[in-house]
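Progress against Task 2.4 (sequence-to-structure conversion) is shown through the following example record, which the project officer requested during the mid-term review.
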Amino acid sequence: MKKGLIIAFMAAISILFLPFQGHAVIELKFNSMYAPKHPINTDAFTVWAKEVEKRTQGRVKVTLFPSNALASVKEAYDATMSGICDIAVSCPTYAPDRFPLSTVINLPMLGTSRAVINSLVLWELYEKFPQMQKEYKGVKLLWLYANPTFQLHFRKTIVRKLEDLRGLVISSGSAMGLKILKKLGAVPESIPMVDVYMALQKGVVDGCMLPYAPLKSQKIAELVHYHTNADLLCTSFYVVMNLDKWNSLSPEDQKVLTELTGRYGAKLCGSVFDRFQERDIKWMMDRGDEFYDLPELERQRWVQRVKPLREEWVKKMEKRGLPGREILEEAEKLIAAYKAR
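Structure tokens generated for the chain above:
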């Protein structure tokens, strides 16, 4: 009798420590565009997944599938809608006609070198403009974020003014980057990031237009030692969730995810970008690289050169009946306010 009571007591105690009662664990497959060791995977998405599991007491578990294991970046959104993956990350710029207003932060010389600012501004724009919210119909948007701005990196020379760019061959992997370089008087060369090292090594290009983040990991930093900080453009990203999967969560768990997404997610990813950028810049400074920040007066000369590209975007938005100018002006105002803090 005594032995039976002890067994019953132990069974009751063990039930109290179960992570959930009466609910099956909901498994979420998260398709990531980044390589397994990319900082956004290791220090943002993995950290977020662990926090989701902890805060839901194990009722919701997130499994990361890096390197587009479930769907390519161009298919990620539709793959999420159809349920191939439950959560996915990709870029609005891969389908600008589908996410027109979400590309506002990508406009030339608008964003800042701090990804946290770019990310929070993007999220605040989403919260304010219903037209931007409609771009994510059919899914549950978890958060938006952006990287630090692209700068100029050279093998043999430092650029201090517009005139220094004349005749320099500079690589860019984006359509907007190529347009910016042309407006500034450089010779743009369309080269994907994975081929930039070889192009620099062979002398095909004099420099490249990239954020600091990939320079060390892609070994490009072995070849470039002169850096001009001009804040030329940045890239925006979205993290979306399958709507049926979202609706399958209990109200309690939806509340947890709501608290761990939106502004929280934007700040998390932005801060990871910034932290690793600071680390790599320090490494390059310690080895003797030369850095040059454009003075404000000179920077305004560059801005005037690329402003027509902003106007093209505004006109394109207005032609579609979208508040292009209003959202651009709001972005400028928010960025200025964050920079002044």
